Amino acid sequence: MISFKNEIAKAIAEVTNLDVEELKTYIEIPPNSDLGDYAFPCFKLAKALKKSPQIIAIEIKDNIKLDENIIEKIEVIGGYLNIYINKTTLAKNVLKEISEKQELYGSSNIGQGKNAVIEYSSPNIAKPFHIGHLRTTVIGGALYKIYKFIGYNVIGINYLGDWGLQFGKVLAGMELWKDEYDFEKDKIQSLLNVYVRFCKEEKENEKLTDLARSYFKKLEEKDAECLKVWEWIRNVSIDNYNKTYKLLNCNFDEYRGEAYYNDKMEAIVKELDEKGLLKDSQGAKIVDLEQYNMPPCIIITSAGTTIYATRDITAFIDRAKSFNFEKMIYVVGGEQKLHFEQFFKVLELMGYGEYVKKATHVSFGLVVDKTGEKIGTRKGNSVFLEDILNESIQKVEKIIDEKNPNLEDKQEVARKVGVGAIIFNDLANSRIKDEIFDWDTILNFQGETRTLYSIHICTHKKFNRKSRIYT
Ligand code: ARG
Fold this sequence. Notes:
Elements: H1 4-16, H2 20-26, E1 38-41, H3 46-49, H4 53-63, E2 71-77, E3 80-85, H5 87-101, E4 115-119, H6 134-149, E5 153-157, H7 165-176, H8 187-204, H9 206-220, H10 224-248, H11 265-274, E6 278-281, E7 284-287, E8 297-300, H12 308-323, E9 327-331, H13 337-356, E10 359-362, E11 367-368, H14 385-403, H15 410-428, E12 435-436, H16 439-442, H17 450-459, E13 463-464, E14 469-470
Parallel strand pairs: 4-5, 4-9, 9-10, 11-12
Antiparallel strand pairs: 1-3, 2-3, 6-7, 7-8, 13-14
Bound molecules: arginine.
The site of arginine (ARG) has 9 residues, from loops.
């Protein structure tokens, strides 16, 4: 592949007598392509050449020897040279490289010898694995594959929400209503029903919240019976998630959830205390972040229990020590932005700033319906991710039946297209914006749209323009 940057720098070096390597470092990509494919700011040359940037730009443009196969045209705007490269040469080069490298096109080894930890999906056990977790799972799954492709040693972590007050709620509910649900038969559905019912009833009955707290406290105190039920709930839930992960072809190297840090938090709380960061506040222990314009980060609640942030701080330090990561990527919704800012700041104050610099919160918008309402929350009903994937597969099966009933491997194609269309809808959406979940767009067969694209990706079969489907 020719390096356009190199060629541009060489041509400029000829007219300015400056060093090619140095010139290369000045070349920029303009903020939008109307301003060219590359831009060369002449400001830095002004001192050496003792002329104004604009004059330098004009002189370079007038004197440069242009190979039209490489540079199509150059324009001067202010002290900038805007450079337009030859698109035919670019296309030829790219196609040649693709045909040589095949599936390895775009890969590199820039991550060689470096660890990238990617934490994604991370559903909350006992709560539904619903459409809200679609984006973290899809975006995280894509990042996992991309980082592998550029040579990193990737560690995919599913930071399951397997600890917290929600277990207190489910444990209390299971005990209160044990005769009303069949936990052996409809395991996951019963657990969910108990959780949803508990959340609803506690709104009118504060005593239930106290009861949930006491159950969670028992769990934190390692009550054997509670721990046994907790483990059962965890296993049932993971089995259920795995069905969805299999459909989405997601990989995790570790299912290391919040509970894993239970016996590691004490040392971290001690460390925070020794570093003089803990303050008492209304019976809780907090790190004051007022001077950073943030609310305090609660470490121990007034009930004496640890909290989400305590576990995140502990998990971060543990990962830094065990993986010595070059990148620590959290794929988590934008709703938790403040939480990440808070606990990153606490870690910085603890002296882990070098690691915090390597951490990124990859945030994303909500999944909403056409009217802009968050999906799945309206009637307290949850839309399960697995059901959505299956619904998509069924819808594609129907479309194939209408358009191309004799298609071979109909079910296999429907599975790939149905799941592919959901993934594509997510990744084609701007990450930060809310994603509109609308079946008509997702499964639109008109034009070169998402479904067609995913069929192409998934089947590598031939496209029949008349029936508008790949065969
Ligand atoms: N379990 C959390 C949720 O579903 C997401 C976990 C995000 N990751 C983290 N390190 N806090 O809301």
